[in-house]
TrEMBL record:
This is BFN domain-containing protein. Residues 1-136 form the BFN domain. GO terms for molecular function: nuclease activity. It comes from Microbacterium telephonicum. Coiled coil: none annotated. PANTHER family: VON HIPPEL-LINDAU DISEASE TUMOR SUPPRESSOR, VON HIPPEL-LINDAU PROTEIN. InterPro entries: BFN_sf, Bi_nuclease_dom. Pfam families: BFN_dom.
Length: 169
């Protein structure tokens, strides 16, 4: 398992939302990032949590967090466990008041949105990153501007040409 963080949310050429999960211990512009296509509502929910913004009314993932807190449970971790026929699968590990850990099947977008609200670590299975990950071509402010611009252009070109069908096993 590789620990990741939300590296950003983008739109592909068809206007579909893509969440980018980037390993936390790899310098930006190196290694691989995992793109996962998600719905618009989930994208909004994740962005609100990552940016620390407040929604005017609780979103579904806020409700989940509140329910867990009220019941005394905690989110231990989130894992993107596998990809089958182009569909990603995830699990949320919850620790109850009795100390037992339960693993619950979840969509990756919901799992990441919940982890983003509870500060739970997010992990991706090595096989998933190797199979569906793409080369991280986007750097950060440490890189010279022309290198960053080239990386952004390469990534935009990738998003324009990629199709979710490309990730089917």
């Amino acid at each position: 398992m590789v620990q990741v963080q939300v590296g950003g949310i983008a739109l592909d050429a068809a206007g579909e939302h893509v969440i980018l999960l980037r390993p936390v211990d790899v310098f930006p512009g190196q290694g691989r990032v995992l793109p996962i296509w998600i719905g618009a509502q989930e994208a909004t929910s994740i962005l609100i949590a990552v940016e620390g913004a407040a929604a005017p009314r609780p979103l579904a993932h806020d409700l989940m967090r509140t329910m867990l807190t009220t019941l005394g449970a905690t989110v231990e971790r989130v894992e993107v466990t596998r990809i089958e026929d182009g569909t990603f699968y995830a699990e949320v590990s919850l620790r109850g008041t009795d100390g037992a850990v339960q693993r619950i099947d979840a969509r990756p977008s919901d799992a990441v949105a919940l982890a983003s609200r509870t500060a739970a670590p997010i992990f991706v299975a090595d096989e998933v990153l190797a199979t569906a990950g793409i080369v991280d071509v986007i750097g950060d402010d440490v890189e010279p501007p022309e290198s960053l611009e080239r990386g952004v252009e390469e990534f935009k070109r990738f998003l324009d040409e990629i199709d979710p069908e490309d990730f089917k096993g």
